[in-house]
Amino acid sequence: MAQDDAEAITERALTRVLGYVDPVAHALATKAAARDETTIAAALKNVLGPEAARAVQEAVQNRQGPSDDEDSSSDDEQVDAPAWASERDLDEAVAAFDAWVQPDESERRRADDLFDRITQTIKEVDPFARVELRGSRASGCALFDADVDVVVEVMLTLEAVAEALSEAEWSRGAELIRARVPIVTGKDASTNLAFDVATTQDAARQAAHAYGGDLNDASFSQDRPPHFASTVRLCKVVLRQTGLGGAYGGGLGSFALCALVFDILRRASHGTPGGAALGALRGLGSVHTYARPVHLGAAVVDVNLDDPAAVAAAFARAADAPTLGAMLDVPGLARTRRRFRRRGDDRAAAAPSPESRGVKRPRL
Q1: Which helix (H) or strand (E) holds 40?
Q2: How many other β-carbons are positioned within 10 Å of the β-carbon of residue 125?
Q3: What's the count of helices (H) and strands (E) in the chain, helices before strands?
Q4: Which of the residues 73, 274, 277, 354 could staple to 90 if both were Cys, CB 3.0 to 4.6 A apart?
Q5: CB burial readout 171-188, b (16+ within 10 A) else e
Q6: In this structure, are strands 148-153 and 194-199 parallel, antiparallel, or unpaired?
Q7: What pTM does this model have?
Q8: In what order do the strands lie in the sheet with 208-211?
Q9: CA nearest 96: which of 284, 254, 234?
Q10: What is the residue-wise DSSP string for 156-200?
Q11: Which structural domains are found in the chain, ordered by start?
Q12: How do 194-199 and 183-188 pair as beta strands?
């Protein structure tokens, strides 16, 4: 949701649950809501406790304020659960879920367009800059609302990159975040799609580092085990719901997750999507999985997490769930999916095409 909407909605939700607005909880909830409402509880659990955190998330998702009468708008009416949520056959459920949760053609085009805009903006400042797509969109394992992750090799500082992106007409809220690995974050004003930009120097220090071979996110888009992409996408949603994803903040990022799932699936072949998903969840549910480097060909990937036990516990709980519907926050996911598709369509319809802006789109 938009930043202004997130501030107002989370304020009302906190008032409903707590009776007052805690400034720290409000800041955390607003940031989480602006990116993905299903991560609000994870963002608040250390501040409010798990029970209150879940209540705030539910109030935000249902657009509830201090009064029970203050309900959701037409955009937030009760959403029917997708078919995969009630499917008891795990193979059928995972296959249907994967088709539902990955970007459709129009969403992929919007991501391509955003990458074009970022590249053009940076090259206007440094024509010799090398701009590369990274993350789940490079690996072919993106969720429908995945950020466009970019790494840029420039002589400029990241501060200069942030300034250029913040001044671009198409961007909104671009700012430099001095996290474990500094990045520039922002959104495309026309589609509300988020982006992250890091320099190659900083990206090399993220929570998963490969050395000894030419390995990056795009390497996982080819020659991979069966059902690799669907398994990674499911694991991403599990991480998202617990707030334990994101390499730049010390969690399990896209690159590390791809490396771990690749290693697990190649060690034990699974002929069905459900079997691959369950095998990966069980493997990732062991804390020992994160204690050793992953060897992929000539490359070695070190995975360094702030809290490997918490990550393992999240995956172990998911593996024990009786159905996919019980594993995931179905109402939250369904609302997020519908809003993203609807608002993306509305904003894209009003936005000029890349060709009208003189942008030439590379094939991603």
Answers
A1: helix 40-48
A2: 15
A3: 15, 8
A4: 274
A5: bbebebeeebbbbbbbbb
A6: parallel
A7: 0.73
A8: 208-211, 299-303, 294-296
A9: 234
A10: S-HHHHHHHHHHSTTEEEEEEE-SSS-EEEEEETTT--EEEEEEH
A11: 1-78 (no CATH), 101-327 (3.30.460.10)
A12: antiparallel
Six-digit token string for 281: 């969840």
Which tokens belong to 102?
Answer: 């990955």
- How many residues would you count in the chain? 364
Q: Structure tokens of 144?
A: 């429908």
How is residue 176 written in tokens?
Answer: 């430099």
Residue 270 to residue 228: CA distance in whole angstroms: 10
What value does the mean pLDDT of the chain take? 82
Residue 66, both tokens: 């201090």
Give Rg (Cα) of the chain.
20
**Residue 196 CB partners (closer than 8 Å, separation 6+):** 135, 147, 148, 149, 150, 183, 184, 185, 248
The tokens for 228 are 């690799």
Q: In a 10 Å sphere around its CB, with 0-12 CB exposed, 13-18 middle and 19+ buried, how is residue 127 labelled?
A: exposed
**Per-residue pLDDT tens for 249-293?**
567 888 889 999 999 999 887 889 999 999 999 999 999 999 998
